[in-house]
TrEMBL record:
UniProt keyword annotations, A-Z: Signal
Superkingdom, taxonomy of origin: Bacteria
Protein name, per record: YHS domain-containing protein
Signal peptide: 1-19
Residues covered by the YHS domain: 52-84
Length: 146
């Protein structure tokens, strides 16, 4: 039993480590947990993508809800890739990577941002411009780290 628990814990730790080493927040290889990043801009809400509408970019699989959104992304992916690879904007401003939830999304200055949870998003929103400046400095230093 202990061996099984150890093996499970090791596999979980390896998965978390892999996910956070990536420049893109991509649990199980799916960027932004499989949400369609173009939909945040076009529909102003989180929309889950379909496995059948996938595009591999920056080491992650990006899923889309429609062929039109997939083609829009392929034409200009850097317009839609979230800032800081989809990791928490507040966490990035503090010098570390943190996972995010889709409902914490914000578009500011035509850029997509995510946060760890709604409480963190509210704190980030209070000083958004200042924290974006800090995160912009921190991101190149941490994007390839765990």
């Amino acid at each position: 039993m202990n061996k099984v628990l150890f093996a499970a814990a090791f596999m979980l730790a390896a998965h978390i480590t892999f996910a956070q080493k990536s420049e893109i927040f991509a649990p199980k290889g799916k960027a932004i947990k499989g949400y369609d990043v173009v939909a945040f801009f076009k529909e102003s809400r989180p929309v889950e993508g379909a496995d059948s509408l996938m595009y591999h970019y920056k080491g992650a699989d990006w899923l889309f809800a429609s062929r039109a959104n997939l083609e829009t992304f392929k034409a200009a992916p850097d317009m839609y890739v979230p800032q800081y690879g989809g990791y928490c904007a507040y966490g990035t401003s503090q010098g570390h990577k943190a996972p995010t939830e889709a409902e914490t999304w914000t578009i500011a200055n035509n850029k997509l941002y995510f946060n760890y949870n709604m409480k963190v998003k509210n704190n980030w929103s209070e000083k958004r411009e200042e924290l974006i400046e800090k995160a912009d400095v921190q991101w190149p230093l941490i994007k390839d780290k765990q």
